[in-house]
Amino acid sequence: MLGGSLLLFIICFIGIVSFPVEAALKKYQFDVQMKNVSRLCHAKPIVTVNGMFPGPTIYAREGDRVVINVTNHAQYNISIHWHGLKQNRNGWADGPAYITQCPIKTGHSYSYDFNVTGQRGTLWWHAHILWLRATVYGALVIMPKEETPFPFPQPYSETNVVLGEWWNSDVEVLVNQANKLGLPPQMSDAHTINGKPGPLFPCSEKHTFAMEVDFGKTYLLRIVNAALNDELFFAIAGHNMTVVEVDAVYTKPFTTQAILIAPGQTTNVLVKADQSPSRYFMATRAFMDAPIPVDNKTATAILQYKGILNSVLPVLPQLPAPNDTGIGLLQAHYHNIKGVFRTDFPDRPPVPFNYTGAPLTANLETSLATRLSKVAFNSTIELVLQDTNLLTVESHPFHLHGYNFFVVGTGIGNFDAAKDPATFNLVDPPERNTVGVPTGGWSAIRFRADNPVALNVGIKDVDGKWGVQCRCMVYALSSGATHDVGIKDGFCCREWKVTGRIYSTATEGPSALLDAVKQGTCLFVSETVEVVTCKIKLDEL
């Protein structure tokens, strides 16, 4: 009798106890390859992943382990950054070439191996070397844990909306030409929605993304701005959007007719198909703070109610003006906006401009250097980002690798350290991984340095690069262990021979070499196969 009661108790106990679901392993194969693609009556070879433009969507669930093997068949070196993933204590998988890994050479493979911890929502991935991000990008969707609902009404269906740009010419050639002239590269020939510019552009009727909806249903749009340069407005004709998430962080829902999204940012919106069944344009165009619009190209896609014929002409949405910034010197003075109208213009230039310097472009380029700031683990960091853009009218997207941060303040003009902190939002600031610093303005962010790894702060320069070619700051966090985690002099993308085996930092990552060396002696295998002896310690890579 006792045994039967005990057995019944065990069965009941098992029935009511919720055991944790074992994390899944998601594997993907990325083949980086060239493909001929036609847009705007032009065809050209572009770098793609698996022949797709945009590339494939990565799907995972919070808690999953993801392994993505990247094989490079293109003529360029490549690396992939998983934009917005925190990569807790796993910075080697972050992706910036020459910062946390060596680029993947032509004919080589590299496996990115990371866990999705404490994150869910919409992120994205992209190439992190040269300007290959123009075509090498895609969405990264992290679903909540099993049986964990959204904190908003469950949508009927969801769709990725990835915004981008298209150049008729080879982007790498354009960038090299611009660098020689010391000028920004030419603007894109079109914007795109899921790689397609839409019917407002020539030869683009068939290159139009369409989304079919059922009347009365609610849809979740996962919107990614994968453009290289432009902040973009996005709207759907006749339909409101309810913003429920930004940069994979749930937000207090609010309804709007249009959103502004900076390069690198993501926004999730709910859209209810509650209008008269017809065809409606989804549209995007650039925001640039200039008196005269300089980039007034509008990409379109179609939201089409089920049962409506394709012959019905779509309705265009009302987008904000491309230069929708209602502020000037007199307005700033009248409204007492600080930092725009100032009386402290210097009598002498703080830094003299070398008008006779040769070459002239040397005066226009930023310094090619990496700056290191060591901060204590778990300390709170505040950064004030001041835009001093003189050559272009674009905002400066700023992305922090390995972290989310809180945007506690933003403003037009120069930051006033004595007065502006009083305006900071310290109650409910938005949490993001990317912020668009206004043209001629500033943004203030705060984050907790709790991810002990060297991290890359990506600042898109005037020429569009994201922390590439050492145009970045690097934060090294003290981990509290016997050595600091940081970037050491001599970090190299080479092959090393240890106890008879060759380890390649380009294909296996520095961590494999660290495991093998353990403060021992190794041999460096040069490109000419000459072997030299070197000493490697654990804290030297």
Question: Would you write up a description of this structure?
Answer:
With 541 residues, the protein is mostly beta strands. It has 4 domains: 135 residues, Cupredoxins -  blue copper proteins (Immunoglobulin-like, Sandwich); 176 residues, Cupredoxins -  blue copper proteins (Immunoglobulin-like, Sandwich); 118 residues, Immunoglobulin-like (Sandwich), CATH 2.60.40; 46 residues, no CATH class. The protein has 4 helices and 32 strands. Strands 10-9-12-17-14-15 form a 6-stranded mixed sheet, with no helix packed on it. A 5-stranded mixed sheet has the order 11-19-18-13-16, with no helix packed on it. The protein is globular and about 60 Å long.
